[in-house]
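Model it.
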Amino acid sequence: MTLQSALDQIVAAEHRHRDVHEVALGVIEGETFTHACRGDWQGAPVGPETPFLIASTSKLLITTMIFQLVAEGRLALETPAAPLFLGEMDQLHVWKGEDLTGQITLRHLLNHTSGLPDYFEGKRRDGSTLAADLFAGHDRPYGLAQVLGRARDEMNPAFAPGAAGRALYSDTNFYLLAEIVARATGDSLDTALARRITGPLGLTRTAFFKPGMAALPLRLGARVIEVPQALSSMPGDGGAVSCLADLARFTQVFFDGGLFPSALLDELRPWRRVFFPLKAGTGVLRFAVPRWLPPFRLGMEFIGHSGISGAIAFACPARRRIIVGTVNQVRDRGRPYRVLMRAALA
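Modeled.
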């Protein structure tokens, strides 16, 4: 079976599920980009240029720009974050009565070892979450002050910054990193993205979401989630839009070291468990299935990122493939990973 036939079968099988209305899957192997898509959008078939929300896969864009700034000498991975915020981060991380905010570095933010709570899906002290509010249809805009206030006043840190063996996946980390990119470059985040990534790579469908921007409607089961204000409030931690062709090109160049010195790829490790079977590296996630579970006895791993929208952008070193796509569905978060594994084995 050819790779094209295999991807067609994978995408067709996913599209048959009741809650899956749009599917896009692409693989780069060598110099060849193979893709398959199903669904309709704005009266036309979904294709490799169809824009979709990539959610937390947006973090790869921020990681890229931080690495670029490190390479330019404007920042360092060990740079403390708090001084870049002129007092706005004061008392953000109080652990056992001591303010440890000043200990948080850019590396801690990138590899989720800051201990800061997750403002988006983490529980407030009353048990509620922002994500649940938004998915229930309560759209709202917010900014840095609201994110810091929620993390400082309504939530608790999980551990001291850099605590041995600890990691907590937190959107707060990347919200701060996106702010740092803007402050370090002196540009808006949109301008920084255009100058540093989309312009140089010729990506025409990749941008941070703005209300009214065209993209596949985000789905939770059969229901469309309409949260344009919130999506435009979280650009770097979860609010980017891309398409299959752009995402494949970007992911390939990311892992080729084409946007920053390839030596910085060595900084991606070590891996720390965030939740099975995902581990966090520096700006990326590692997805691997245990060696005892067939067909992964060779320890196949995937390095990249995924998003709550069902988006994936991973390198599979064992197969020398870049695999990207979306099932455009918030429900069943294991679904895009199953698609990822099938695409690797195709």
